[in-house]
Amino acid sequence: MSEAISLRDGHGGAVTSTATEPIPQRPVTVGTRKKHDKQSMEYILRIGIAGGFAGCAAKTLIAPLDRVKILFQASSPQFAKYSGSWLGAANAMRDISHTEGVTGLFRGHSATLLRIFPYAAIKFVAYEQIRAVLIRTNEQETPLRRLLSGSLAGVTSVFFTYPLEVIRVRLAFETRASHHSTLRSICAQLYREPTRSAAPLEGLSNFYRGFSPTVLGMLPYAGISFLTHDMAGDFMRSPLVASWTTTQGVDEMGRHGGRRPTLKAWAELVSGGFAGMVAQTASYPLEVVRRRMQVSGAVGSGRGVGIRETAVEIWRRAGVRGYFVGLSIGYVKVVPMVA
């Protein structure tokens, strides 16, 4: 580019000369977004902390419903009368507030918070790590691999946090207004309760009551939850509805190096809620069996019971409906928990 330079000679006359001088060009950058290394410690910590805080917030929001659902599933004698009606949950919460106060609605929530942060964090981290191993290319993005990734992530998180789950359920199952157990007293009680077999460290095995149906339920719940969420997300990003469901009206995949378009908030909510409802329905009978096993030491003879014995007892008392008691509460709480 030419640039005119004015100089003056010795007689005061103006001399104009033209100099050609390149002007440095600023590099033009195309809008790209940094790709995260899902194997890096920074990414693991960020997604783990985010998942933990999200789980704590969601559990606090639905804590009253969670306690009522536990009482229904475990067939609490005091609250069994409410489980068969549409307004049963509301009536049960009113009963709890009247006898135990508002804080009674959050009975066992302290154990919930102790459990949910490591549970949610471990699940999110495990899912990303397992998915990165099993699904390395787009060709490997199959429903079976998605299902396996979700199931293994769920089992991993449950294994490390299950004792806190049992403690939480036992605290929530207590309905005596005159006496409330503490975390310490519940732990001591669980350790002293008789077991089904004389196994090594038999007292510690009580903290894993109901673990077997939990693991069996992880396949339909965690697996189907992640699978359905991914499939619903794929549909929401399809050209048929993408103009309404994604944040951009243009094809972001071409602009951002293959990154999937971002869903709008309502579309993400619908995808997560739908995935949660499908997974909840598929795994709910095993959840009811698990709850009965977890509280078995607090009722009857105080001895733990097995899966078959518990399932037969539920069938004998209530038939098929007994395996789905409290499911409507699960539908109400599943949206903030999963979406």
From TrEMBL:
A Pfam family that the UniProt record links to this protein: Mito_carr
Solcar repeat coordinates: 42-133, 141-235, 263-339
Highest taxon listed in the record's lineage: Eukaryota
Membrane topology reported for the UniProt record: Multi-pass membrane protein
UniProt region (Disordered), positions on chain: 1-35
Alphabetized InterPro entries for the sequence: GDC-like, MCP, MCP_dom_sf, MCP_transmembrane
Protein function: Mitochondrial transporter that mediates uptake of thiamine pyrophosphate (ThPP) into mitochondria.
Family: Belongs to the mitochondrial carrier (TC 2.A.29) family.
UniProt protein name: Mitochondrial thiamine pyrophosphate carrier 1
